[in-house]
Amino acid sequence: MKYSQQVILKRWIPILKEYERTKAKVTPRQFKFIKNLCEAHHISRKELQRYYRKWVEGGKKPESLFPLKRGAKPGSRRTPKEIERNIMKAYRRFRSNRYELVCLFKPYYLDKTPSPATMDRIKKRYPLNERDKKVIKRYEKKTPGELAHIDVTKIPKDVRAL
């Protein structure tokens, strides 16, 4: 159990048990009113009720007090299978790179068009067979330096005169 979870339990479980005693008006209770309980623990009544509701709905288990996970659920934002199939058909037919695929599908899917990075992830999920891999152009050279290039810049005349 994480330290932050221990802090939550140590703070809230005694408060919630005292809240139940105060609410039920059981004789040996520390606070006469719930308002007094909230003031003593520096919490609002709304916050207390929210934690109590979570605790009761969770079967009064300590884990129910922990914050829920936030954000998208795994797989909820995945590209639909139909779009993935169309992307793979186009990739296998035209051998397009990820940017060309985005440009190709932008007019059809508009806002639903996957990003270039997603295009690569889709291509990774459906790998090519050995025969198709050989067809792809590679820029592998036999000797070192074949892919080298030189940038030429223009030097002002007054510097050349020196």
Structural commentary:
The protein is 55% helix and 0% strand. It has 8 helices and no strands. It has helices at 3-24, 34-41, 45-57, 81-94, 98-109, 116-125, 130-135, 157-160. 7% of the residues are buried.
Order of helices and strands: HHHHHHHH
β-strand number? 0
Whole-number mean pLDDT: 86
What would you report as the Rg, rounded to the nearest angstrom?
A: 32 Å
- Which percent range describes the beta-strand content? under 5%
Question: Main attributes?
Answer:
single chain, 162 residues, mainly alpha, 55% helix, elongated
Task: Give a brief outline of the structure.
The protein is an all-alpha fold. The protein has helices spanning 3-24, 34-41, 45-57, 81-94, 98-109, 116-125, 130-135, 157-160.
